[in-house]
Amino acid sequence: MKKFIAELIGTATLVLIGCGTAVLAGAEVGHAGIAAAFGLAIVAMAYGIGPISGCHINPAVSLGAFVSGRMSAGDMIQYWIAQFIGAAIGAGILYMIATGRADYSLAENGLGQNGWGAGYLGEYSLQSALIFEIVATFLFVTVILGATQTRAPTAFAGLAIGLTLWGIHLLGIQVTGVSVNPARSFGPALFTGLGQLWLFFVAPLIGAVLAGLLFRTHLLEETFADDEAALEVKGDI
C-alpha cells in the first residue's frame, strides 16, 4: 500500500507540475522552462518517494524494471494501476485550476497533451513521433536502470534521471510534446481526446523493453564476473 500511494502521488505530481507548467505558464517560460519543470519534478519525487517505491511514476520504467528482472509481474501491475490513477488525478487538478482563467479553452489551450501531425506544435509526422518516442524512452529507461544498479553512485541517481528527462524534453517538445511515459499521456488525454494516445502507449513500451533487455542479458548490467575482472586488473586476485 505504501508503494501504491507513493506511485500515485508521484505520478500526479509529475503531470501537475510538468503539464501544468505548459498550460499555465508556457507562454512565459517557453519550451526550456517546460522541460525544466518535468526534469525538476522527477528530481523532487526521486528523493521524496524514491525510498518507498523507487519512484518509477511511469509504466515504461516499471516495464523496463520487470524485463530486466528487477521487478515481479504482480508488482509491475500494481505500479501501473497507481500510475494511471495518479496521472488522471494530476490532470483533473490541472483542469480545475486552468478553467479558473476566464479566457481558458480546453480546445484551444489544451491540457499539455501529447500529439503529432498537422496543428500540433512542430507538425512532425507519425514516423518522426514514433521514432522519437521509442528512442527517447529507451535512453531514459537505460539511464534509470544504469543509475540505480548496485555499483552506481545511487545518491545522485535522482539528479541524473531528472537531468536526462530535462534534456529529452529540450530535444523533443516540438516533436510530440514528449511522453516517454504512457501515464503522463493518459491523464491529459482523458480530457482532450484519446485519438492519438495509442502511440504514447506503444512507443514508450517498446523503448522500455529494449532497455530492459540490455540489463536482462547483462550487456549493461554489472555482474560477479565484472567484479572479478576489475580485481584482476588491479592485481588483487
UniProtKB/TrEMBL annotation:
* Membrane topology term: Multi-pass membrane protein
Main location class: membrane
State if Transmembrane is listed as a keyword: yes
Provide the alphabetized UniProt keywords: Cell membrane, Membrane, Transmembrane, Transmembrane helix, Transport
Indicate the transmembrane segments per the record: 37-67, 79-98, 129-148, 155-177, 197-215
> Which Pfam families does the record cross-reference, listed alphabetically?
MIP (PF00230)
Give yes or no: UniProt keyword RNA-binding. Answer: no
On the tree of life, the source organism's domain of life is Bacteria
Where found?
Cell membrane
Family according to the record: Belongs to the MIP/aquaporin (TC 1.A.8) family.
User: Mind telling me what this protein is named?
Assistant: Aquaporin
Q: What is the source species?
A: Algimonas porphyrae
Name the encoding gene, please. Answer: aqpZ
